[in-house]
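1st attempt posting a full record on here, be nice pls
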Amino acid sequence: MRLSRYFLPILRETPKEAEIVSHRLMLRAGMIKQESAGIYAWLPMGLRVLQKIAQVVREEQNRSGAIEVLMPTIQSADLWRESGRYDDYGKEMLRIKDRHEREMLYGPTNEEMITDIFRSAIRSYKDLPLNLYHIQWKFRDEVRPRFGVMRSREFLMKDAYSFDLDYAGAKHSYNKMFVAYLRTFARLGLIAIPMVADTGPIGGDLSHEFIILASTGESEVFCHKDYLTFAPPPADVNFDSKEECQAVVDKWTSLYAATSEKHDEAAFNALPEDAKVSARGIEVGHIFYFGTKYSAPMGAVVNGPDGKEVPVQMGSYGIGPSRLVAAIIEASHDENGIIWPDAIAPFNVGIANLKPGDAATDKVCADLYDRLTKAGKDVLLDDRDERPGAKFATLDLIGVPAQIVIGPKGLAEGKVELKNRRTGARELLSPDEVVARLTA
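the predicted structure (as tokens):
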């Protein structure tokens, strides 16, 4: 993409309404624009990051055996009355009526709808286990939306729902999501610690929040410091193996870790002093097992091996890709802007043409742009008639991991400069060496 033809409305001044780093940088970098309280338009660069995060989430869900569907944003109130949650959910639910005066709602979550889909199609235990997920927009009418997309009213959510015959099967489904979440967050460059958590309005008696440590986190969390050094499950983890998945879960729940709601001061104080971590945390994922909370009242039953009907055991599993954009920025930035992990950077490579209109620099820029694009890289070419300092500042602000600086002085010696955004390291290389380095 040539920056002269791209829509990147960068702000030079920090907006007054932005309270935390991620909100400031997302507005300044032209990623989002607020349309009303807690509701944002995703602009081209922000959308690129959001889509890349969603794709990582999707790949790990698929790897675990979950199957993608797409449910609507608008739901019937009748489904929620079946489960008993319609009146209980509170003012966070946006309730509406259509032209026929039918009561509807903008979905804050999808337990009822997925249970209805399941009961309409599945009758036998032989069709279990089943895990269905989608990546869809949700709406919760937060009383005080703040921190940009970190706590917005409209947000993108990956929510998965598992169905099993019995508790043993449901626990394995829960463990598979536990493992998939560890892999997902590691691929996004995050250390996410699973912590025993409150189940809230979703319900159930088994729940973990996946927390990253950040000074701007919503609440205080407590854990053993060794979690910060644990290696994530490998790519070849066998999700079909109950033993292998359980071993991962056992490892990642072997030490103390809890949110403030579940904190046990005595247990935490029993840890060695140098092992204690007390910090602010950001929730990036939440998984629940809730048994027959929805299947029993809504009649989601299957014929068991003995021919008798039993309500299925269920769990739900959420990750917020839109929230993750902000969380990743909170965990990875410096005074100059965002530092994206390579997997989700909006552009892998940025090229700064220091003298647009110069035949030599234009030719090398165009050649590198074409070669790197053909090699599968997302490349941003800054071909604007701007001073060099403005181009450097833009590439740093939006967090392009690899930055190539091309000017007449370097080309006179057959060299261009390659900068690593994360480390700041710079090298003078030939154009061929740059291509080889970035496509290795």
